[in-house]
Amino acid sequence: MTRKERFEKIIAYFLENKPFAQTELEYTNPYELLVAVILSAQCTDKRVNVITQEFFRVFPDVQQLARAEVPEIFELIRSCSYPNNKAKHLSGMANMLLERFNGQVPSDIDELQQLPGVGRKTANVIASVVFNQPAMAVDTHVFRVSARLGLTYQSKTPLETEKQLVQHIPEELIPLAHHWLILHGRYVCLARSPKCTECGLTEWCKYYQEKVKKK
Hints:
Elements: H1 3-17, H2 30-39, H3 45-58, H4 62-67, H5 70-77, H6 83-101, H7 109-112, H8 120-129, H9 140-149, H10 158-168, H11 174-187, H12 206-212
Helix pairs in contact: 2-3, 5-6, 9-11
């Protein structure tokens, strides 16, 4: 099976079985999603959603967050991973949004990456989810699932994975495919014990065909 055929089969499967897929982070506007994605680094979406309930009550907009002291922010996010760094990032992000972007979350990936706490993955999430741009955010799930399925070949970095995926996925499906791969990695293609018996992709999965089926 060629890689092109593998992409076509897997995309067709997801389109039939997961035609609607979206982030599990809870948000109502670009500011809230940006905060949530910054908090989600090495932290579960479930934990982030608990934290942001109170966070958005106290800091409902970027103006309120920009006025806050870092220790105030820390107290609200202390149950997530790396709260010290994230509190500083959130404060810096809010102030830069006001100073450089008139309080509006930019849609440009390069501009997003100027914000404290925003790397390429976070910028791609915002561009994809909020602005429906063909940006592929690669987290640990996307990186792992893409390699196992055989969608990527000898990719050593998230950027390599991103480039290989966007090369083969139709542009209009990239925002959706991002969620397909994340959710598949989160609930089926687990890091240590992939649930191959529950997976509908085994027919086209390189990992299953080479490592599991032959056992």
